[in-house]
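Postdoc handover notes: sequence design on the structure in folder B. Input tokens:
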């Protein structure tokens, strides 16, 4: 991929010089996609975090975050007939965006205009922003869940110190990052951790998605630990949406 550097952040935003790749999340019990994570991409940044960091420094994070979500939902809606009615769409979002009262209003409008229901959309709370007011975030989450939108905690890894705090928002799903998937088949310690997490989440009606699965041995180990929702290069790399629509 050739990256272009001549555009400013304002140009990227004004001209919508970005797009989305989608990565499938498989339910291994049905052997078909449970849903897709929507991943922002741009030819004007080597990775999404670089683009979001520029937005943070320019105090335009909300604008970029919201625009990304609107663009993703519009694309999903255009192809709605090609998805099963229960398909889930995972949309990354920063905590400050999610907690904004304006976001709830706009999301309600988008859902009302969508052929999908509110519970088709899962907002993944980005871990790259420090949450200073957990009660405000929890209140925002409760309002979103009250209209049917689901909430996921993203990239839970080796350092789970913040997990206890973030669980106060009562997520519907937690996504475990590649730390748990790497060499899982040969790590009794990680397998035990996954089993404990599965037991913990089952009691609280929280789903688990394991990210980063890249080989069959680690996939089989994950399934033996009771983790049926799997995301990773083994099952599908991020690609433009039409790649998954036959």
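Designed sequence:
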């Amino acid at each position: 991929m050739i990256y272009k550097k001549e555009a400013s952040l304002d140009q990227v935003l004004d001209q919508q010089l970005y797009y989305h790749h989608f990565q499938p999340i498989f339910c291994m019990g049905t052997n078909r996609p449970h849903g897709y994570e929507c991943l922002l991409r741009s030819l004007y940044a080597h990775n999404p975090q670089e683009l979001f960091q520029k937005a943070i420094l320019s105090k335009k994070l909300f604008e970029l975050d919201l625009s990304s979500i609107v663009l993703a939902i519009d694309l999903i809606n255009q192809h709605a007939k090609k998805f099963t009615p229960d398909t889930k769409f995972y949309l990354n979002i920063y905590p400050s965006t999610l907690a904004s009262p304006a976001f709830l209003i706009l999301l309600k409008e988008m859902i009302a205009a969508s052929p999908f229901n509110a519970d088709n959309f899962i907002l993944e709370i980005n871990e790259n922003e420090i949450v200073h007011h957990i009660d405000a975030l929890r209140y925002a989450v409760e309002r979103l869940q009250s209209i049917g939108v689901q909430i996921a905690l993203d990239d839970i890894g080796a350092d789970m110190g913040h997990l206890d705090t973030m669980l106060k928002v009562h997520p519907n799903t937690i996504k475990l990052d590649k730390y748990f998937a790497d060499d899982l088949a040969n790590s009794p310690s990680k397998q035990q951790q996954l089993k404990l997490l599965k037991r913990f989440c089952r009691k609280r009606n929280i789903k688990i998605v394991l990210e980063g699965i890249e080989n069959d041995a680690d996939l089989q180990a994950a399934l033996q630990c009771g983790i049926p929702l799997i995301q990773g290069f083994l099952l599908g790399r991020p690609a433009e949406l039409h790649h998954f629509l036959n």
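Context for whoever picks this up: The longest strand covers residues 32-41. Don't rerun without checking with the PI first.
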